[in-house]
Amino acid sequence: MALAFDEFGRPFILLRQQEEKSRLRGLDAQKANVSAGKAVARILRTSLGPKGMDKMLQSPDGDVTITNDGATILEQMDVDNQIAKLMVELSRSQDYEIGDGTTGVVVMAGSLLEQAEKLLERGIHPIRIAEGYEMASRIAVEHLERIAQKFEFGLNDLEPLVQTCMTTLNSKMVNRCKRRLAEIAVKAVLAVADLERKDVNLDLIKVEGKVGGRLEDTELIYGITVDKDMSHPQMPKRIENAKIAILTCPFEPPKPKTKHKVDIDTVEKFQTLRQQEQKYFDDMVQKCKDVGATLVICQWGFDDEANHLLMHRNLPAVRWVGGVELELIAIATGGRIVPRFQELTPEKLGKAGLVREKSFGTTQDRMLYIEHCANSRAVTIFIRGGRIMFPCYIIKFKIIFVGLLCREMLWANGSAEEENK
């Protein structure tokens, strides 16, 4: 290997074996590309179907993932060949459009490439092969339309959607409680579906997971979950018809931005300073009480004195809530984020039917549930499990699949009604 420079002074490397290397052309290049696609399909073929085997994947960081989901496997594979990257993109597109069948579409593409290789060896041009596949695709779609059946469903008859979702969960690790998970997925989709407009907004479905418990402990929450607890252990854990003050200002005394020094040389000065600080905290808590707030959610921390006052004034509070979660709470409850205590008014309070804190077993983990919000139909699927694995992704895929299926059924029902008219 030698270093050379071009006319602009930029260095580039010359390989000594450059003359020995050769570029593949014609049939050899086509066979090499087909072999790369077949290799990817061959890896996923053993994980397809109800008896498919799981794959153990190890990331460069040492994290181990065990899954038989095609999209997850291809996403974590280190692929260099361009045709193999196209297979990964194919699986990603299938996941984005449908949410299911990520393994089957790659295996089918590999089988088509395998059959195309035999035609290439017989001297048929690749364009002619592609045209033949397009004709076969049109014939297959027409046949599917002839044999397709329409399933009627409604809010009181969810069995067709539940059965469909159970079918997609058959090949996954969660098949031992697939009935419960299928019902959760269907209820989540219908909770955010607009039946009049015949549309489903899947962005309103939030999937959260927490290590611990069993998969059977998975639940559907009609609201938002926050991985926080009350700031004081003696605060109430259940608040009905909550009026929430959403704050981005801390319960702390103001700090000067310049260097300062306070000299306290007598007991009287210390008592005066303490009373002034207590009055400052007392004014903060009183402003929250005056506007009618029954719960305070703050982005920053509390001083111990302020936390003590909040508990004695019977005003539950939550601290260190992230900015993204704060925005979600504001949107769901119809509240406004308040940057200063002076701007707090009753109109800026959010409203929720129920706010409760839930603890999990002996692990002392606690989460805050904000349910029956005022301005949102957002739901959260809270998944439990023994370790961080792929169930969250699987449930999300099935939700997307059921949502798209529900949307297609709604569209089909609407078209049938128009035809009847």
UniProtKB/TrEMBL annotation:
Gene3D superfamilies attached to this UniProt entry: GroEL, GroEL-like equatorial domain
This protein's GO CC annotations: chaperonin-containing T-complex
InterPro entries, sorted: Chap_CCT_epsi (IPR012718), Chaperone_TCP-1 (IPR017998), Chaperonin_TCP-1_CS (IPR002194), Cpn60/GroEL/TCP-1 (IPR002423), GroEL-like_apical_dom_sf (IPR027409), GROEL-like_equatorial_sf (IPR027413), TCP-1-like_intermed_sf (IPR027410), TCP-1_chaperonin (IPR053374)
Subcellular locations according to the entry: Cytoplasm
Keyword DNA damage in annotation: no
Calcium among keywords: no
Keywords on record: ATP-binding, Chaperone, Cytoplasm, Nucleotide-binding
Family stated for the protein in its record: Belongs to the TCP-1 chaperonin family.
Protein name (record): T-complex protein 1 subunit epsilon
Species of origin: Citrus clementina
